[in-house]
Amino acid sequence: INGTLDLTHTLGADDLGIFRTWVDASYAVHPDMRSHTGGITSFGTGGILCKSSKQKINTKSSTESELVGASDYLPNTLWVKMFMEAQGYPTSQCFFEQDNESAIKLEKNGRSSCGPRSRHINIRYFFIKERTMTEGITIRHCPTLAMLADFFTKPLQGALFCKFRNVILGYKHVTTLTDFVDIVDQEHVEERPTDLDLTAIEKQQDLVQGERRSWTDVVSGRGKKHDEKTINQTIILFQT
Fold it and tell me: CA quadruple 163, 68, 41, 144: dihedral positive or negative?
């Protein structure tokens, strides 16, 4: 705290008609097994609307907690959109980003994407599908290491904490979120990864050649140096 007394909060916008929202949830992290929701909205520089709150119901899976979190934060996104339009700045693009593919499918398709493990979810949480369609909000996937809302759901440390803090306070542009890693969509890595790519791979699978590393080691860059043989091995990415 003593080292951050002079930090300020700066807000800026690349285009007042374009903004992004990040939403995330940490599953069953409270003593009563309820999850925690985090969300932030930005026009490019600094977070203009942030939220960190305990969910009001117990959920049965991380997917359900993500859905509940999206439902809890979406009204804030809608408010920002309506407020800007009332000031004379119509929204041309609005992105609603999450890192859970299953939750995204439920939000886009509603009940039609429910399976045996999600049929119990209260129908009120599927208002997301209707409102995103009517308001022109685009739901899209965001890699875990670029999920800015993680700052409000878990105690981050090291380089990842500093990166998110700088974006939220406006010291860095939101586009720098993807500078930390460049996570590929393919399942197998064919070419030798860079040092940053290797860090991302280790975070995603938490296991390289039988060696386990803690989350703290990954985000701070500490841990065993990998030799040429280890780096060139085929590594399977487990996308969150």
Answer: positive
Asked whether 190 and 235 are in contact (CB, 8 A), the reply is no
Cα distance between the two ends of the chain: 32
Q: What is the pLDDT of residues 147-188, one digit of tens each?
A: 999 999 999 988 999 999 999 999 999 999 988 554 333 333
Cα–Cα dist 42/121, whole Å: 30
Q: What is the mean pLDDT of residues 109-126?
A: 70
Question: What is the rounded average pLDDT of the residues 204-211?
Answer: 46
Q: Give φ, ψ of 73 to 5 degrees.
A: -95, -25
What is the full DSSP assignment across the chain? -GGGTT-----EES-TTEEEEEEEEETT-STTS--EEEEEEESEESEEEEEEEE-SS--SSHHHHHHHHHHHHHHHHHHHHHHHHHTT---SEEEEEES-HHHHHHHHHGGGG--TTTTTS-GGGGHHHHHHHHTTPEEEE--GGG-GGGGGTS---HHHHHHHHHHHHTSSBGGGGGGS----SSSB--SPP-HHHHHHHHHHHSEETTEE--HHHHHHT-SPPP-HHHHTS--B----
CA angle in degrees (0–180, nearest 5) for 64-71-137: 115
